[in-house]
User: Which sequence fits this backbone?
């Protein structure tokens, strides 16, 4: 193991790690915002409301993220309408393409988590809210969503870690995030084991910090006290 | 849009076959690794427990793509020296072998946790009954624990297999000629990226649906004799 090389390139790898964190942060926050209406619609009682989020989730969970990324980054350019639209400056930028794809992808998973959480809220709590005279919308906002947030939080933290690992795919569309940076450095130094090892340590450290952060968040939201019973 | 995709239809079919082969080989390796990992993690020996924990934590904390790249590019030096030792110059890991190892490793790490949960879910009394009957430890494992474990582990393994199937797309990065690689080749010739990647997406979707249906029947078969609790 050539430690000198690892230390020499550490700053560049850290630079890649910042881009990774940026991608993940935007994707999981935007994905959550997009997932809330999707998840609520997905758990609707009417089939025609359920149908749209169902097919969305089915497509995004059934195909690899790599395919989705290529569809957005390379695929959209096939249409002249896209290339002449006002959005083209964003859609030809690998950063925005990756952010868009990761957001759409993670939103499908988070929506499914939210549906599970909404459906596992004890019935009595919703009935109690309605019995107190809350409208359906009010019960949703003040009772069901806060409750679902606590039920779904552990699964959401898993999803964030999965997105951290999925962000490595951004290197295939020329983005220099952690994996992309590692590949660039290897192209110069021809030391794949050392550099990939260092990148792997970066991923481990980031996921460890994320796990600790979510533990704090769970304690702050008193998730344990809200479980079942 | 042409049905035969400008003559690339057969190539896409060949890619699909390669993807399925890759997924099944990785599944096999992953099941073995997962089982070993779970046995290590549930064993009474501390070093084995650490080893199992180390394996599942390390592999799950690093992206799958990084494993694929690391195993393909990182083993060149190792394979070279191995080739010299075995008097077989130019020995190298093929993209297929590297993909199987990388995906199997990742599947195994997650399967370790699934199997561990399933082993712990089997009542202690079953093992004790086996001991009381004079069965050896190996016998208890193969005749009592493993057959019961399948039923509990199957839903978790099914989910992992879906993830594995989608992760096979990553192996295209090191040049294995599976669905994604063939679509990329088609794109460079025809300049119709959307068409080709959409076809690839549809192939993956249908593979997922087939796997889901298969899982449904396997779960049904594994759960025979277990009536669901009366509501």
Assistant:
């Amino acid at each position: 193991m050539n430690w000198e090389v690892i230390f020499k390139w550490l700053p560049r790898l850290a630079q890649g790690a910042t881009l990774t964190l940026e991608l993940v942060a935007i994707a999981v926050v935007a994905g959550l915002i997009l997932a809330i209406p999707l998840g609520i619609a997905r758990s609707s009682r009417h089939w025609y409301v359920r149908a749209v989020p169902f097919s969305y989730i089915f497509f995004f969970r059934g195909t690899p993220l790599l395919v989705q990324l290529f569809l957005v980054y390379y695929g959209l350019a096939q249409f002249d309408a896209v290339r002449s639209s006002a959005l083209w400056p964003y859609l030809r930028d690998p950063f925005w393409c990756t952010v868009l794809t990761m957001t759409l992808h993670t939103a499908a998973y988070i929506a499914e988590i939210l549906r599970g959480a909404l459906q596992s809220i004890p019935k009595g709590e919703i009935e109690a809210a309605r019995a107190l005279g809350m409208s359906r919308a009010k019960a949703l906002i003040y009772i069901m969503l806060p409750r679902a947030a606590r039920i779904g939080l552990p699964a959401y933290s898993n999803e964030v870690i999965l997105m951290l690992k999925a962000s490595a795919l951004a290197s295939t569309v020329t983005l220099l995030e952690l994996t992309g940076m590692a590949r660039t450095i290897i192209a110069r130094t021809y030391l794949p084991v050392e550099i990939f090892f260092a990148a792997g340590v970066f991923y481990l450290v980031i996921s460890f910090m994320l796990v600790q952060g979510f533990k704090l968040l769970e304690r702050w939201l008193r998730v344990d006290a809200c479980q079942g019973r | 849009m042409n049905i035969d995709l400008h003559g690339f239809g057969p190539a896409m079919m060949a890619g699909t076959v390669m993807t399925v082969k890759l997924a099944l080989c990785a599944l096999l390796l992953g099941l073995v690794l997962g089982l070993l990992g779970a046995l290590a993690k549930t064993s009474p020996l501390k070093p084995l427990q650490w080893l199992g924990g180390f394996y599942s934590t390390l592999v799950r904390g690093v992206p799958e793509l990084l494993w694929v790249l690391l195993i393909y590019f990182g083993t060149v030096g190792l394979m070279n020296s191995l080739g010299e030792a075995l008097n077989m110059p130019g020995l190298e890991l093929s993209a297929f072998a590297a993909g199987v190892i990388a995906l199997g490793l990742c599947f195994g790490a997650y399967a370790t946790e699934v199997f561990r949960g399933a082993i712990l879910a089997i009542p202690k009394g079953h093992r004790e009954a086996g001991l009381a009957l004079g069965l050896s430890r190996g016998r208890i494992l193969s005749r009592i624990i493993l057959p019961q474990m399948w039923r509990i582990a199957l839903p978790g393994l099914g989910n992992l297999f879906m993830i594995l199937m989608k992760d096979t797309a990553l192996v295209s990065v090191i040049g294995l000629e599976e669905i994604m690689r063939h679509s990329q080749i088609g794109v460079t010739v025809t300049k119709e990226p959307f068409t080709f990647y959409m076809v690839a997406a549809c192939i993956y979707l249908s593979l997922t649906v087939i796997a889901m249906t298969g899982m449904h029947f396997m779960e049904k078969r594994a759960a025979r004799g277990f009536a669901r609790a009366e509501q």
